[in-house]
Amino acid sequence: MIPKIRDAQYAGTVYNTLPSLPQVAFAGRSNVGKSSLINALVNRKALVKTSKQPGKTRNINFFKVDLWACPPCTWWTCRATGTPGCPWA
Ligand SMILES: Nc1nc2c(ncn2[C@@H]2O[C@H](COP(=O)(O)OP(=O)(O)OP(=O)(O)O)[C@@H](O)[C@H]2O)c(=O)[nH]1
Ligand SMILES: [Mg+2]
Predict the structure, then answer these.
(1) Are the CB atoms for 62 and 26 separated by under 8 Å?
(2) Which residues pair with 68 in a beta bridge?
(3) Which residue, of 10, 16, 42, 82, has the fewest CB within 10 Å?
């Protein structure tokens, strides 16, 4: 079952300011769709900035994602981590 998204928000670039959370990092070649995939997974069009040009993502960016638990009376939090494209293509 795919969990429903309760909330997703930008959570900065500095790891030390964030609590320890389960984390999924998205890495791969530039312009391959890493940032678009995060937006799709959290049902948001522009939480993560995307571009037709490679090299849009320049930092490691953290996004706090709340997923509804089942039954939906509470939620759990994880982190989606966007990374710059590597290798450049
Ligand atoms: N055809 C197609 N295009 C996609 C898909 N996902 C993303 N794109 C397009 O691919 C381009 C790059 O998407 P991004 O999500 O910015 O790619 P990225 O991997 O984050 O790129 P960098 O930040 O440069 O590393 C954009 O023009 C997207 O619209 C997909 O599933 N299919
Ligand atoms: Mg990107």
Answers:
(1) no
(2) 75
(3) 16
When divided into structural domains, the chain yields a total of: 1
Q: What is the pLDDT of residues 34-83, one digit of tens each?
A: 999 999 999 999 999 999 999 999 999 999 999 998 777 899 999 999 99
Compute, in angstroms, the gap from residue 41 CA to the centroid of ligand 2.
Answer: 14
Q: Helix, strand, or coil here: 73?
A: coil
Task: Determine which residue's CA is closest to atom 26 belonging to ligand 1.
Answer: 52
Tokens 């706090």 appear where?
64
- Spatial separation of the C-alpha atoms in residues 73 and 4, rounded to whole Å: 12
In a domain, 87, yes or no: no
